[in-house]
Amino acid sequence: MTAAGNPAVTGVGRPIVGGRRLSLTWVGAVPFLAYVAVFLFLPTVIIAAGAFFGENGFTLSNFANLSRSYIVTATLNSIILSAVTAVAGAVLGALLTYAIATGNPKGVVRRIAVSASGVLAQFGGVTLAFAFLATIGPAGIVYLWMAEHHLNIYGNGIWLYDLPGLEVVYLYFQIPLMVLVFLPAVDGIRPQWREATESLGGGSWHYWRYVAGPLLAPAFLGATLLLFANALSAYATAAALVNQGGPILPLQISNAITSEVGLHEPGFAKAQAVVLIAIVAIITALYAVLQRRTARWLQ
Amino acid sequence: MIRGRRAKLQVFRVVAFILFGAFFVVPIYSMFEFSTRGIGNAPRTLDNWKAIGTYPDMVAGIVNSLELAAITSIAILVVLVPTMVWVRLRLPRLRRVIELISLLPLTIPAIVLVVGFWPMYQWLGNNVSDSILTLSFAYAILVLPYSYRALDAGLAAIDVKTLSEAARSLGANWPTVIWRVIVPNISSALLNAALLSVALVLGEYTIANNLLYPNLQVSLVSLGRTNAGVSIAVAVASLLFAFVLLIAISFVGRPRRMRSEVA
Q: In this complex, how many residue pairs, one in chain A and one in chain B, have their CB atoms less than 8 Å apart?
């Protein structure tokens, strides 16, 4: 970034006419660059550098601490939660996408479904947690109605405040996100391809197995990865729903910085943040690769 | 055979829309129901809604978040609009870099960012100000990608170069070009970006909670521990407000997009 912001570096390949004017031109980008340097790059540097430093200089103890059993459990839980909600969200979202895509492309149903997905994919956090508490919480309307009809969903204890509850609640934003990401790919499928399959004597099975399936596979996998990263990064919903402890990694990071539970361990929080961002970065890179594959035939 | 498939498809679509519709509508309906519930077998009441004003911490949280939303949405425009216009006109080589930087916060989870903010806000609190309004600096980073996209779409729909050259040849200076020529032409994109920022800031919890600042969502969670009915009433109110904003965005965005398609 600093290299790009420095005229001496990027200006080399180009004949400089009137050096003073050129440097004045660069001044126009300074406020923005200065702001992102302080509030985007400085925090990143603080995390990356801070993870390797303790009170006595360079140390790897922050990373060694990641082997604490509750952190290992939280990391595994985070990965399980993200994987479950990514796969379930992708499958259910794909069904909904198919239902939307097979309708009238200019119809009201489609327009409502698409705008609702846009809103609901962003709908997370405290309000979402409250919505599910009001629905299937111990005083929620659906829970009370089911209890009246002798259906006890909490036979083995209240799972809403724990991982299974998070899985259900996360689907509320994962499914709409899948619709948003996957719909363009499904729209790219031409009816002519199905007709071509049929004229060659193929049935529904052949069409899905040999034509639509392979075409949609990269888009589907890519969307699943995006959903995985999305669930992994989510903090607010879980924080509002889970009353105690830290079953997932984002909640453990929060515990380590705010010292609400246990010790204030800033270096340790940074090491956990590095782990989280590393997983998200790998997933995002894979997503970008698959996205490029999809884009090849989508136009 | 084809007719049979059509019928099956229609059945699938109807069933899918009913089931998914229920999954998405019931939780929101349940919040309405919960917030208007009477005590015991009492009839429906708006008592929870009327009681919102009697919780000073909650009111303070709402006011804090509204102020943050106003400051953030204006600040990001003040920083971003001149930069984007300037880069389009005079520094085209920087455009990719600015875009990359602007979209970067999308890939960094807020819970990670807040770890880096923690020491910075400790320093700010000790040396500059411990006001909650300093959160605007962090929030501007959160809304940066969304504002960038909205403004980029707006600027792409007009001919920035011709407009500004025409204004310059008539003797306008750069601030005049931006304020009196560019801004009126991208007004819907500006409104779009501002409304998105407001919606995002009002819903923000991660950063405020971890930096220990009581914004709307943080106050909501602590009120939820003492009075669930009132807290859910506030949640419904903020949700309605966000929906109104987002519907407004969908109306603001439309005419501009249609015009650019024609052009």
A: 201
